[in-house]
Predict the 3D structure of the following.
Amino acid sequence: MTEGRFALERAGLDALRAALDRLDEGFAGLPALEAADDGDAAGLRRVLLETAARLTDNYPYFHPLYAGQMLKPPDPVARLAYALATWINPNNHALDGGRASSAMEKEAVAGLARLFGWDEHLGHLCGGGTMANLEALWAAGRLAPGRTVLASAQAHYTHGRISGVLGLPFEEVAADRLGRLDAEALARRLERGGVGTVVVTLGTTATGSVDPLTEILRLKERHGFRLHVDAAYGGYFRLAENLDAPARRAFDAIGEADSIVVDPHKHGLQPYGCGCVLFRDPSVGRLYRHDSPYTYFSSSELHLGEISLECSRPGASAVALWATMRMLPLERGGAFARRLEDSRAAALDLHARLARDPRFLPAFRPELDIVVWLVRDASLSACSARARSVFAEAARRNLHLALAELPAAFFDLEGAGIAKDRDTVTCLRSVLMKPEHREWIGAIWAALDAAAGA
Ligand SMILES: Cc1ncc(COP(=O)(O)O)c(C=O)c1O
């Protein structure tokens, strides 16, 4: 394990300086302008150091011993390209404000659409998964006004909230023991009618479970609802070659959806906020139609604001994503895909260690790279208390895990002799998003082992 100071990556700073020179050169034809006042260099340094000091009051998200929530450091190329773009500070609302970065956004988004098998599409970047899902459900609601949105009990809570914002009825469908949408419960609900949209989650937030998309597609044939895939977390796993068969089938079928959300700021190595919404049928663009008295004058080409609900948006997000996809193309077997495979391998390794250890009880085998487990005790209440204390003990040993409140049905309580004195249980949860987690599982295990005691 690394002793002493952990070195934050900074090798790219020279490349950033060179890129800034190149950017400057591009505007050399302008009348000379004094560089912005740098008179208060001492003040700048003081405030930046104060800022750095404030930022140390964070969990160490960049370090492999941070294995808690969905937090992953951006790739250096994303971080630097984002910073570089802020010298120009383009706004991707309209080509007036972000000509180059809008073109880069269209290219990057087309790359994401191709990841899901779509040569034709309509889509754009936005603030994150919530905003992207809002746009998808907004379009769904415009196409089927007043009809119900369904999502599994394990879908992200945002779908219920978004439906409320949009004034659409929303209902939960039961999840099964593996945290997936229960297709039989869905079939029963569909028979009652009134459903406009079914949200299918490929990679749930709590457990990374993958809803049975192919079965749900069969129900779509019969009932004709709109199918929206929330792959905010899991979307990039379409590239991974070490998925189990059910998840593989679902990711292979993802292109059959009407709309897809994927978050480059989760597994796509981007800084926050970078979400993406994609529509299979580009004609949904008509739903966005509006005039703007302020923008859209500089070109008759598509301005991204014409197909998005947000107006001002950071061109820097598009620049960072574009640069990352240049450096790490979305290809099966490529470096980017291998990193996802490492994350999944780390999750399988941790799951196997937990299953062998009598102190713990893991839930089902992870479908992606998220592992959840109980700290065994006589009852679920006692297990919950134990999970909270191991969580705190682990943090004292620099291992940062997460806690989750999950259905008791996810665990084989009978086999483990645990009394079911409540319906949910507080468990430990680890999102092994960083490829380094694969190498660090030994260190993670050592800290967990010590935190859990004998
Ligand atoms: C499956 C899923 N959908 C939607 C969201 C919401 O995304 P965001 O936090 O980027 O708004 C999340 C966040 O974890 C998620 O996991």
